[in-house]
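User: Second chain of the day. Same drill as before.
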Amino acid sequence: MILEVAVLQIKAGMSLEFELNFQKASLIISQMKGYLNHQLKKCVEKENQYILLVNWETIEDHEQGFRKSKEYQAWKNLLHHFYEPFPEVLHYS
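Assistant: Same format as last time:
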């Protein structure tokens, strides 16, 4: 199992809209091959910061399967315009 970790900095004033869009995006990612589960947590100390944790069966399921899929384009359209700066995504075993 691989844990994908991304710290998400959301543009000021856009947290509520981000959370609503993330609910829609969750339906997309949860249908992907190799997806196991995910958590989105809002930071207590930093108002516009979140952490996204996604468990995948393999790193390839995330990097090849999801990121190169048409579903990823829908995910990207729902979420990527909220990030500033764009998050670094790392994987842990």
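The mean pLDDT is 98.

User: Great, on to the next one.
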